[in-house]
Amino acid sequence: MKPGISLAMIVRNDASRIERALRSVAGVVKEMVLIDTGSTDGTQDIARGLGATVFEREWPDDFSMALNWAYELVNYEWTFRLDSDEWLLPGSVELLRSFESREDVFAATIIREDYTKDGRFAETQAVRLWRTCPEMRMVGLVHEQFSRDTLERASKGKQYIDSAIRLGHDGYMEDALPAKHRRNLALVEKELSIRPGNKYYESERVRILYLLNDPSADSENQKLIDDLLAIRDQDVPPTTMVTGPLTLVLDRLPDRELKTQRTSDILQLARGWCSREPSVTYAAAKTYIRRGDLRSALDALLDLEYMSESGDYLRSGFAHPAMLHESLWQNLALVAHQLGRKEIAARNYERLLKFDPSHPFAADNMAMLLKG
Asked: What are the CA-CA distances from residue 123 to residues 184, 263, 319, 323 (Å)?
């Protein structure tokens, strides 16, 4: 393989965004390999005009197959995957380029900022950069992934690391999302017919059912949670995607179930398997507050505070910035105040007032704290 980085991408009918995606990496990658699966809007011509090599293939109804076609066609030492509704953020250009000289790494995750219509974003994490080799092939008809076995075989003694490379992503702002969710649900269910019991795809199925407001979502999630509780003695979860079902079951817990043994077991599972996941930790903290267990809530909120200050956390689920900023500061200040942990309460009231000088209760509570 020649030294340098290849871009690999699949695309179909994204003429309005393909230029943004390709220009974001044009100064870093040595080639841009695109598989077009049937565009009728001129996407291919735009991509070719920007220097991409475009191969036209019929859509196989299988995302991993289409992506693996692209991976087979790259010619450089590193492969970088990008979707057409994504772009490399300017501050990450040199970070990406630096991997050309990394002899100790075989693959790296990136952080994707998933923008929403309210101007905020959630963070997700995925393997998008790796040393080009025939072992690195994805599996899954949809929400494709590299299996753990694949990553282990391909590593050849080199490291698998979490990088600080960031992508922007606005695909969740589309009006056509419900149609995409229905398409993805059909592919997930097809995947589960091939590999029944796969917890990654069972978790994805539940997530999509909620996105579609399907009336069966809650009952399907409860079945999945029962399956996870049955294997809670395992040291690690069957998939990092369990963050979604665990967060959802805690966030939607009715008052009558707050103090049941099942809820205690779910909380133990969440705190054990997902201790570095902000979304699950935040859901657990809120549940402890609802249960009146302020000491356990404080422990979870302090874990979140560490994540916020250090940036050291996993992003397998959607990590919304507010749960590591204003929502965290408010809950942590109030819980610490009630438990008499004045130093913790004070620093979080101060953060709230710095964020919003007219915060409705932070100034008054801070005054009460200092007076007491």
From this structure: 21, 27, 5, 12
